[in-house]
């Protein structure tokens, strides 16, 4: 039996994933966490064959949690689950050590296959993401301004570009509004931009968000 730990802050999503997994017969969700803190507490107490990790959680983001897992539990493969497309987070997730990247809309059809492939030592990557990975190796690496951002800065940049207010970002990420503004100023400085409008145009042009 494949033991699965799911980390997602939405209980309804966890329940849906459990139902999908239950139909496979040879795998079971034996641990659930609503954030990274709960996930690491469970990892200390038991062992799992795979972790299904949401990229967008309050507190420590999925990418930050993934990097910590690579340091503390490198033997456990991680499948990143995301509502975002490959352009936004797929490359970052794979480069950070994820064994796979799956969009939530694809979970009903692909989750079981993805887990089987990962547990057997493979990588689960969509054709679209595989093409983007190939492009990064085929061509000389071109440095885009957003690649200089930390994972948290990148996450906040995408939310700003989507039009989320500082208050909404602060509440979702469990940080202060002052911290959000500090991140915003740092992002604008690193990307050599002056306004949210510039950030939004850049994000749309580079397909980091849906325009």
From TrEMBL:
Q: Which domain of life is it from?
A: Bacteria
Keywords in alphabetical order, please: DNA-binding, Phosphoprotein
User: Which molecular function term from Gene Ontology is one that the record holds?
Assistant: DNA binding
- Read off the Pfam families from this record: GerE, Response_reg
A GO BP annotation: regulation of DNA-templated transcription
The record's section on Gene3D superfamilies has: 3.40.50.2300
Q: Which residues form the HTH luxR-type domain?
A: 142-207
Task: Locate the 4-aspartylphosphate modifications and list their residues.
Answer: 54
Residue span(s) of domain Response regulatory = 3-119
Database matches in InterPro entries? CheY-like_superfamily (IPR011006), NreC/VraR/RcsB-like_REC (IPR058245), Sig_transdc_resp-reg_C-effctor (IPR016032), Sig_transdc_resp-reg_receiver (IPR001789), Tscrpt_reg_LuxR_C (IPR000792), WalR-like (IPR039420)
Question: Coiled coil located at which positions?
Answer: none
**Annotated PANTHER family:** TWO-COMPONENT RESPONSE REGULATOR (PTHR43214)
Name listed for the protein in its UniProt record: Response regulator transcription factor
